[in-house]
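hey can u check if this looks right to u? its 98 residues, i copy pasted from the old doc so theres a chance i mangled smth
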Amino acid sequence: MRLLVWIVLAPLGLLAVAFAVANRAPVVVSLDPLPIRLALPLYLVVFAALFVGLILGWIVTRVSLWRRAPKRVGAETPPARSPAPREAIPTALPPPAA
């Protein structure tokens, strides 16, 4: 499993580095309603957007898991019924009615 992770993540890391090196030119990022204008490298904008997306996805996943959890903190599954004692289990069928 570890080898598979390395086989997948190593090329992805190299692609990310190659992308960052190839896209160093500054781009202007503006938040339209606000008077904020930033000149940032393109790779930084893309990586920041990916990071924000990962964080938002993680938060949505956590909230959905939290909503599926039991409403009460002390809620547990009810205890299992104990099996019937050996004497109470019939060993043969009753005779047919005449």
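Residues 2-70 form one domain.
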